[in-house]
Amino acid sequence: MNHPYKTVLFGFAFSPSLKINIMETSRIAHFFKAKLLLLHVGEKTVEKEQQILEILSQIEHTNLEISIEWKTGRPDQVLLETCEGSNIDLLILGALQHENLYQFYVGSIARKLTRKVCCSVLLLIKPSEERVPCKHVVVNGLEDEGTALAVSNAIYVSNALGAKQLTIVEEIRQKEVAVSVQDDKSLKKASILKERIRHREDSRVRKLLKSIPELDLKNLKVKTQSIFGKRGYSIGHYAEVVRADLLVMNAPKKTGLLDRVFPHDIEYILSDLPTDLLIVRKTN
């Protein structure tokens, strides 16, 4: 099986949730068989160092390869530079405290990092000191060049975390069913058109799944789900309704000045995260 996340970075903050975040992050690194780099953007003091070492002495998995770094500067810029310079495969974001100012990565900073960072990003909204099993993973199945990688990584993460169910959601824009329903005849026409689109999307995803080794799918119940609605909003709502433990999405494309297309998809999810979110980006 492919191991996409060999080196994981977590920017830690000296906040009330520090211990929970470290426990969760170290657990994830263990399941991914990854090296863990802990980074604090702020001043290093003896007290802070003792506090982080005390927490690390309590983690479940003591065989982890862990390193700690202390840097100063703008949190977002430091994280971007560290991900690039340390060949990070996965950046985990929770909350970062820059001196006495709390900055939660569920807003403008998350949007900035997910656009610019060179690696995949995992946004944690519900870390836990004691492990809460991951049971159901939802991944986007839209027609996009990044979808095969997103699905492949979702399968890897599902197996690594012991999830038993993976749902691939095909978001279909309403404008694809451009039929004005005014009577029984037009209603039937719209229904037939929707069914044809569902069949087309399911066939496309099934074809994608054939490229995945059977062994990787052995312990997973995989289903496909077509949803008609606004892209980004629809899958976020679906993940919330089915109480998914993790939502996996393609990374937004880097399009320079045209990057304003970004709010049309992941923006909806970032503004109201339904669950933990993994944004998959191909590393260079």
Automatic annotation (TrEMBL):
The record, for Gene3D superfamilies, names: HUPs
Ranges for domain UspA come to 48-123
Which Pfam families does the entry mention? Usp
The entry's family comment says: Belongs to the universal stress protein A family.
- State what protein this is by name: Nucleotide-binding universal stress protein, UspA family
Which organism's genome codes for this protein? Answer: Flagellimonas pacifica
